[in-house]
Write a structure and sequence with these properties.
With 441 residues, the protein is α/β, with parallel strands linked by helices. The chain folds into two domains: 255 residues, Vaccinia Virus protein VP39 (Rossmann fold), CATH 3.40.50; 136 residues, no CATH class. It contains twelve helices and nine strands. Strands 1, 2, 3, 4, 5, 6, 7, 8 and 9 form a nine-stranded mixed β-sheet that branches. Helix 9 runs antiparallel to helix 12 and helix 11 runs antiparallel to helix 12. The chain starts with 6 loop residues before the first helix and ends with a strand.
């Protein structure tokens, strides 16, 4: 046996155990964050490929090209259970996918991973110096700057970039922008009412190291812009004026509210609990989670009543859903063992649970909607509870492949994701504040 036979695969890193519990591509990144962006983007992407049009995509700050996978994974909105081909786009629908990044190592990695696909190219380039070179190029259908990329820019740079994009684009082009949210719980001590204060955060990418992994490593930080909805809308408006082109804000949403990357590090807010770890665990195959770890414990900050209200509203619904699921599981076990809690057994339907639980005060279940959506917190929570009731009732009776770990827990995670999507208000309360814009010419 050749002694060194496995050295090469080991040093390549490809011999490491796959785990969705940690790292850049953890379960939450792939199954929550990427998916939420895809769900919001789906109707706009569908419009771009009507009648099988091939599309042109420009990925700004493409990093290692993850945007390509994200976009290829976006699902159509209305699909039936029996359909298997549900993605909006596929490699055959790509005319051009051009990714730019300032970091040559990331560009090399992007080319190594995706460079072989037809029409796909990644190049080293500063996106602030890019569009002046584009005069002779046809417009792109989608300009895509995901995962906090635009927080690397000053506001002036972003206004210049967006107005160049608006001029270069065609009627109907879509622009997706993503910044860090000013009011994420992850950095609650940085919240301020004076918009001239704390405009940036000294951002550390410490979260990709698993516990203690960082050892002696010096982790460098860099400034990233934090934005509220008001500041974001002002940037978009100024870009539109400068370009002389109408840029419509179609969506403005908070992503990753209680589970952004720095919830687990508690580096900026020591009150944060490791919620991301718990959600990663929910999504991990064959892995059971202590559901108690999913309970949010929001600590309000004096002087910010509206933000506290928003967070406590979401916290109330979130915790109610987790608690209801725990009770459903206990109820199933009790029935299986022939003993119902409380003698004859208290009803565990959604309305009676909501009546009984004192922990979700009515004031926390009122409408939080300031946007076009009419969904109230109460109806979003009820919908999620009914979903979990169906899942727990149906799956608990199965005997193959640990239905608790493989069906019930992931579904609970998707219901929590849905709650986040329905209750968020696009105010900058998530790790990311995402805008989907449409150009009208
Ligand atoms: C937060 S990462 C996002 C990476 C990628 N878009 C993703 O979805 O994972 C931001 C990226 O923007 C790149 N970047 C920052 N400033 C840039 C600039 N002026 N021009 C081009 N790329 C830039 C960084 O190198 C980094 O890869």
């Amino acid at each position: 046996m050749e002694k060194n036979a496995y050295d090469e695969p080991i040093s390549s890193g490809k011999y490491e155990p796959p785990s969705g519990l940690i790292g850049k591509y953890d379960n939450v990144r792939r199954l929550w964050e990427d998916e939420v962006i895809g769900i919001f983007l789906s109707p706009y992407l569908e419009q771009l490929v009507v009648e099988g049009n091939k599309i042109r995509i420009l990925d700004l700050g493409c990093g290692s090209g993850d945007g390509y996978d994200l976009l290829m994974g976006v699902k159509r909105q209305n699909v039936t259970t029996s359909q298997h081909d549900v993605n909006v786009i596929n490699p055959d629908l790509i005319d051009t996918y051009l990714g730019f990044d300032i970091n040559p190592s990331l560009v090399a990695q992007a080319n190594a991973i995706h460079g072989g696909s037809r029409g796909v190219v990644f190049q080293e380039m500063d996106f602030n110096h890019l569009l002046s070179k584009f005069d002779d190029e046809p417009p792109y259908d989608l300009y895509f700057a995901a995962y906090g990329t635009l927080s690397h820019n000053t506001d002036d740079e972003t206004v210049r970039l967006l107005s160049q994009i608006a001029k270069h684009s065609r009627d109907g082009s879509i622009i997706l922008c993503d910044w860090l949210g000013r009011y994420s719980y992850e950095w609650q001590p940085l919240w301020t009412k004076d918009m001239e204060q704390n405009k940036t955060i000294d951002y550390l990418i410490s979260y990709i190291y698993s516990n203690g992994d960082e050892g002696e490593k010096e982790i460098s930080s860099f400034p990233l812009r934090l934005l509220s909805s008001k500041e974001t809308l002002a940037i978009i408006e100024q870009s539109s004026i400068d370009a002389g082109v109408q840029i419509e804000t179609e969506e403005l949403f908070d992503r990753s509210i209680f589970m952004g990357r720095h919830i687990d590090t508690a580096q900026y807010n020591p009150c944060c609990k490791p919620m991301r770890r718990a959600l990663n665990s929910l999504l991990e195959p064959n892995f059971r989670t202590d559901l108690q770890e999913l309970m949010v414990d929001y600590v309000p900050r004096d002087g910010f009543p509206e933000l506290n209200d928003f967070y406590q509203n979401l916290e109330g619904c979130w915790n109610a859903l987790v608690r209801y699921t725990m009770e459903l599981l206990q109820r199933f076990d009790a029935e299986e063992l022939g003993r119902l809690p409380g003698g004859g057994g208290e009803a565990l339907d959604v309305p009676s649970f909501l009546r009984r639980t004192q922990r979700v005060p009515a004031s926390r279940l009122q409408s939080t909607s300031q946007t076009s959506t009419t969904v109230t917190a109460r109806s979003a929570l009820k919908k999620a509870m009914l979903e979990m009731e169906t899942v727990v009732t149906g799956a608990s009776a199965l005997n193959i492949a640990d239905p608790r770990a493989n069906i019930i827990e992931p579904q609970l995670c998707y219901c929590l994701r849905q709650l986040e999507m329905e209750l968020q208000q696009g105010e900058g309360c998530g790790h990311g504040l995402v805008a989907i814009l449409k150009v009208h010419k």
